[in-house]
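To illustrate the input format used throughout this study, we show a single complete record. The first block contains the structure-token representation of the backbone; no residue identities are included at this stage. The design step must infer an amino acid for every position from geometry alone.
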């Protein structure tokens, strides 16, 4: 039988089993220092949001004045979202990190603004895609940049302090 799941962080204990089927697996990605961006296709409308604001996309994309919208256009995110939506009818939101000059001191050392996707929300199903689904969509179907993946098959190590310790460090 599988070990019971902890109810609270203080209840985490190393599982007694050596059977990998008894563990919950996770994806570990690098945290990039930038600014949050969300690009979406919903009900035949495209949108871009910064961390807290909806940003209006100009009718003439060449008139974009926001780093967020400019990057989404230059990287083809909006075009690919529109094409994907028109082909599948799926309403989705791509959540990512906008990195580059003038953002968080350009910690990543990029020459231009770039978007790295770290999550996908299926608006119709009201759920986030699982890591494998997300990678398939972002990398293979849309051909967009995904945040760098440290490991896609990590089981939860305990105690929790070890997990938090492993999260510290440079990207």
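Output of the design step:
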């Amino acid at each position: 039988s599988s070990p019971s799941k902890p109810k609270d962080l203080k209840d985490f204990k190393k599982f007694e089993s050596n059977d990998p089927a008894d563990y919950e697996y996770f994806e570990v990605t690098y945290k990039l220092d930038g600014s949050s961006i969300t690009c979406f296709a919903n009900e035949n409308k495209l949108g871009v949001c910064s961390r807290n604001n909806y940003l209006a996309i100009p009718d003439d994309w060449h008139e974009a004045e926001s780093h967020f919208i400019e990057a989404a256009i230059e990287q083809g995110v909006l075009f690919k979202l529109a094409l994907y939506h028109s082909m599948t009818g799926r309403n989705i939101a791509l959540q990512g990190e906008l990195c580059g000059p003038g953002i968080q001191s350009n910690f990543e050392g990029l020459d231009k603004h770039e978007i790295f996707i770290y999550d996908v929300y299926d608006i119709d199903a009201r759920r986030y895609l699982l890591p494998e689904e997300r990678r398939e969509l972002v990398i293979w179907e849309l051909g967009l940049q995904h945040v760098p993946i440290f490991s896609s098959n990590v089981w939860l190590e305990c105690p929790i302090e070890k997990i938090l310790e492993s999260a510290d460090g440079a990207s």
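Structural context for interpreting the output: The mean pLDDT is 85. DSSP finds four helices and eight strands in the chain.
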